[in-house]
Amino acid sequence: MADSALAAPESGCRLCPRLAAFRAANRDALPDYFNAPVPSFGDPMARLLIVGLAPGLRGANRTGRPFTGDYAGDLLYDTLRTFGWAKGRYDKRPDDGFELVDCRITNAVRCVPPENKPLTEEIATCRRFLEAELAALGKLAVVLALGGIAHGAVLSAYGLRKSHYRFAHGALHELPNGLLLADSYHCSRYNTNTGRLTEAMFHEVFAELKGRLR
Q1: How far, CA to CA in Å, does 141 sit from each of 39, 41, 47, 182?
Q2: Which residues contact 10 (CB under 8 A, 6 or more apart)?
Q3: What is the C-alpha to C-alpha distance for residues 7 and 134, in angstroms, rounded to an integer?
Q4: What is the separation, in whole angstroms, between the first and last Cα of the chain?
Q5: What's the burial of 44, exposed, middle or buried (CB within 10 Å: 0-12/13-18/19+)?
Q6: 132-152, pLDDT tens digit by residue?
Q7: pLDDT digit string, tens, across residues 65-114
Q8: Among 20, 60, 63, 117, which residue carries the largest CB count within 10 Å?
């Protein structure tokens, strides 16, 4: 199950009125879905933290576990298992027994946004939870941002200027606090279908990080 031990928004969080209204509408239309802020998942003593954008409507918003139940999760979790950051069988369910090893996953925005597009102010409002997550991970060494929004959210959480650390697939940024910020295109179906991100490209990022975290 998703680990909720670290700081997270309450299930009825209303800090972002638009997202709260969207959750309420989804509860009426999709009563069997999780329909709440999605907690982080994985090892609270992890050295690797992966930051995504936001829960997908029929993925994490349905299951309550980041990246679980949609195509992005298929690619991400298969890759994590390939490189030794996960074990067990990923079965697209939060109770499938799948475990992360020395790895944790969260999102820049914890609630599902309409059309998968959070507003700038919603990203800023939810940053307090990312800040708390980063501060609570005592052994953190590497943060992998999946996409430009996640990249920017991590930098903002540390009070750093985005202009000093440009997002680019495969880029590695040494931060002043000693952490490594790595970038990858998001593993969304759109990015893979258009060829912007291939499995080989995604694996190259993880291979590089695996080498650095031996």
Answers
A1: 21, 17, 5, 11
A2: 37
A3: 10
A4: 27
A5: middle
A6: 999 999 999 999 999 999 999
A7: 999 999 999 999 999 999 999 999 999 999 999 999 999 999 999 999 99
A8: 60
Domains of the chain: residue spans and CATH: 34-212 (3.40.470.10)
pTM of the model: 0.95
Please, are residues 153 and 169 in contact by the beta-carbon 8 Å criterion? no
Q: Which residues of 172-182 are buried (b: 16+ CB within 10 A; e: fewer)?
A: ebeeeeebbbb
**Per-residue tokens: 51:** 């930051």
What is the rounded distance in angstroms from the CA atom of residue 13 to the CA atom of residue 122?
Answer: 12
How many C-beta neighbours within 10 Å does residue 169 have? 17
Q: Residue 176 is encoded by which pair of tokens?
A: 């002043």
Could you read off the pLDDT of 46-76 as tens digits, one per residue?
Answer: 999 999 999 999 999 999 999 999 999 999 9
